[in-house]
Amino acid sequence: MITEVTPWFPNALDTANGSIGHMEDVSISYKKITTTHEVAGTSGADDWNT
Predict the structure, then answer these.
(1) Structural contact between residues 32 and 46, judged by C-beta atoms closer than 8 angstroms
(2) Distance from C-alpha of 11 to C-alpha of 46, rounded to nearest angstrom
(3) Which residues contact 39 (CB under 8 A, 6 or more apart)?
(4) Strand 2-8 relative to strand 32-37: parallel, antiparallel, unpaired?
(5) Strands, E, within the chain: which ranges?
(6) Which of 33, 36, 38, 50 is in Cβ range 3.0-4.6 Å of 43 for a Cys bridge?
(7) What is the rounded (10 degree) CA torsion for 8, 9, 13, 15?
(8) Are 34 and 50 a contacting pair, CB within 8 Å?
(9) Spatial separation of the C-alpha atoms in residues 17 and 45, rounded to whole Å
(10) pLDDT score, position 22
């Protein structure tokens, strides 16, 4: 379940941030989760019951 979404922008006065646009911090709460990286073909899982 998504518990919070916080949009933010990097400091535009810092030239190192020139290529970085709009960002979001997303907080989630879960009992069991599986993530898959489609490009790399890898996955990971976590289950609070095990």
Answers:
(1) yes
(2) 35
(3) none
(4) unpaired
(5) 2-8, 23-28, 32-37, 42-47
(6) 36
(7) 130
(8) no
(9) 33
(10) 86
- Under 8 Å between Cβ of 32 and 49: yes
All residue ranges of the chain with pLDDT < 50 are: none
Domain segments of the chain: what residues?
2-45
34-37 contacts, C-beta under 8 A, 24 or more apart: none
What's the distance, Cα to Cα, between the start and end of the chain in Å?
A: 20
Three-class SS of residue 16?
A: helix
pLDDT at residue 25, as a whole number: 96
Confirm whether pTM is higher than 0.70.
no
- Beta strand 32-37 pairing with 42-47: antiparallel
